[in-house]
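Researcher: Structure prediction, please.
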Amino acid sequence: MFAFKGACLKGTPVPLEDVKSRELYLDIPYDTGAAQMEQIKRAYDYAAQKGINLTAWKLK
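Model: Predicted structure follows.
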């Protein structure tokens, strides 16, 4: 995601200059263990370093 250089969507160019923000939404199973949650936290920190807004929530 942070390496996005532009794309084409249904034949319409989407240049990098038109991208206003980078967001990633993550659904986390309710029974996710502590070790997995630690990895998700690392992913959150990494995304923040790359200018990506990562939003995660637990599903019930």
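Model: The radius of gyration is 15 Å.
Researcher: Thanks, that helps.
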